[in-house]
Amino acid sequence: MVPRVPEEGKKASRKRLVEKAIDIDISKKVAFLSRPSSYADQPGRVETIQTHMSWVFLTDRFVYKLKKPVRLDFLDFSTLERRYLNCLEELRLNRRLARDTYLVGPEYPK
User: In terms of C-beta distances under 8 Å and separation of at least 24 residues, what long-range contacts does 64-73 make, across chains too?
Assistant: First the structure.
């Protein structure tokens, strides 16, 4: 007889698997974005800075940001859609005072 796992346990297990998959995916993205060869303009270096809610990649000419899939008391970036919407809001607010700083907005994967 196979022991029955309570529904809450199944959900927690699925959540851990999804989080683990996201971590693997994100770590590959961070590694990719940390390499100068990943950029079209072939910068001489890439400095990677990690904050509580994102990674920032500083190249010779540009800065790129990758939001972390995190949920904190004061923000929720737990889904791709939430991160995308936050990027749009960040652009809206920051372009008021730094219009020429943002060259491209976020792209939502199809």
Answer: 64/33, 66/26, 66/29, 66/30, 66/33, 68/26, 69/22, 69/26
